[in-house]
Structures are given as C-alpha cells and as structure tokens.
Amino acid sequence: MGLGKFAVLATMGELLAIRIAGGKWKRPVGLAYRSIIWGLIGVLIVLMFEVFSSGVAGALSKGLLWSGDAVSGKIWAAFWISAIMNLAFAPAFMTLHRITDTYIDLIWGDKVPLRDVRLSDVIGRIDWQGLVSFVIFKTIPYFWIPAHTLTFLLPPEYRVLMAAYLSIALGAILAYGKSRKSQGSKQVVVR
C-alpha cells in the first residue's frame, strides 16, 4: 500500500523539487534507488501511522492526554498523533533518509564503488547544521505537525496517500525557497 504510493508520488515530488530549484527538468543520480528508498519509506510510514494512532488512542482512553470535549476530541486526537509521531519518530527518520540519499549521491553521483563507501564518508558529507536547524527544528513544528494533524482527521484509507502528497508539497515549497534564495544571491546591488 505505502510502497507503491510513495515510490511513485514521492519520486515525482523529488523530480518536481529539482525542476523548481533548477528551472529545468533533470534526472537525479540514482533515481531508481531513490524511488526504492521512497517505497521503503512508505512502508515505514504505514507502520508508524498505525503504531502512533493506536498508542495515542490507548493514552487517550486512559486519560493520559487531554482529549477536549465531544466536538474537539477528534481534532485533539489527530493533533496528539501528529505531534507525538513527529517529535519522537521524525528526527531519526529524517536523518536516516538523509543518510540513504548521501549514500546514493556518493555511489551514483561521485562513482565511488559501494565497497569503498564508509559510513564516516557519508556522515562527513551531510549538512548537519541544515538538517537540524531547518529540516528538524523548522519543518516539524511549522509544516509536519499541522499537516499530519489534518492527515489524521481523514479516514484511515486516505492517510498514506495524503502523506505522499504532503512530501510532494514540502519538496515543492523547499525547492521554491531554495530557488528564490539562490536568485537573490545572484542579484547585483547597484548604488
């Protein structure tokens, strides 16, 4: 279920992000491997949605989390699932995804044989400042928690599809910001 949706839709999102950031369509290195990684991420997301939905439902039933009244109860439940999942799981998940992308870049972009790629090479290549300060500290509270709150208000059969579309949306937003930033740095100020 999640494998196919993410393999196709999130890969499309990655291609769209490259198009927005670079101004033209470009095939990233290791596209087939990136698609496989996205598919595996989809499988993991299906599992995590179930784990965190069930866990929050259990915590709510025991009164461990505030659930509001009959009207706001569904919204609070969706918020708790999203917040707990994104605060507990997403940082490790995002880091793992960055590591897999870096492996692909080294092997398929830099043409380093797989047997010669060391974890230390991968770790050294990652922009940890950007990963932590932006991807984790900004996208989680300002994008993922609100977006997944809406996702968990949907019937369960639509949640994984919505999550795949959200990855496209975030990729497009980030790429647009990146392209605007690079355009701004190219402008010459005349005084």
Automatic annotation (TrEMBL):
Residue ranges of the TM segments: 6-23, 35-55, 75-96, 128-146, 158-177
Transmembrane helix in keyword set: yes
Entry keywords, A to Z: Membrane, Transmembrane, Transmembrane helix
Name of the protein: Mpv17-like protein
Origin species: bioreactor metagenome
